[in-house]
Design goal:
About 85% of the residues lie in helices and about 0% in strands. With about 140 residues, the chain is mainly alpha-helical. It has one domain. The longest helix has about 35 residues. It is elongated and about 50 Å long.
């Protein structure tokens, strides 16, 4: 059970990181036609919804790992990972609010969200690194 929770946890984190990279690379697509770029914010918000689902899977599997093994089983990277997860949750809430506001201003959608997604990707990458070092 413990190994399955580890795999679910790392898979959810990888999925979240992949979604963040996909959204960021979609924002870099400058040569889209007017029809394609009009529907792009809706596609990004749909991807962000899947990011929310993977974050819920991360939290549930993380609580399961914590309940299964406790704090004493992991090395010092666990506390760094836990701190990054708390920062990630707060930043994800901020990102959701900014996405709603950016959806209302579709002409400024990418100018509002590009720097926020870049920071989100950095936090996710650090969290993934801490998770790998914790579960190694």
């Amino acid at each position: 059970m413990h190994i399955a929770l580890k795999y679910i946890h790392l898979l959810s984190l990888s999925l979240t990181l992949g979604i963040a990279f996909t959204i960021f690379f979609l924002s870099r697509c400058g040569g889209l036609s007017a029809n394609s770029s009009q529907h792009l914010p809706e596609k990004v918000l749909a991807l962000a919804k899947w990011g929310s689902y993977s974050l819920v899977a991360l939290l549930l599997s993380g609580f399961g790992l914590w309940a299964w093994a406790g704090f004493s089983m992991y090395n010092g990277f666990f506390h760094a990972k836990l701190t990054l997860v708390l920062i990630l949750i707060g930043f994800f809430g901020y990102l959701q609010v900014r996405q709603k506001k950016a959806k209302l201003a579709t002409d400024q959608f990418w100018s509002i969200l590009k720097p926020i997604y870049m920071v989100w990707i950095c936090i996710l990458a650090l969290t993934l690194l801490a998770a790998v070092l914790t579960f190694n």
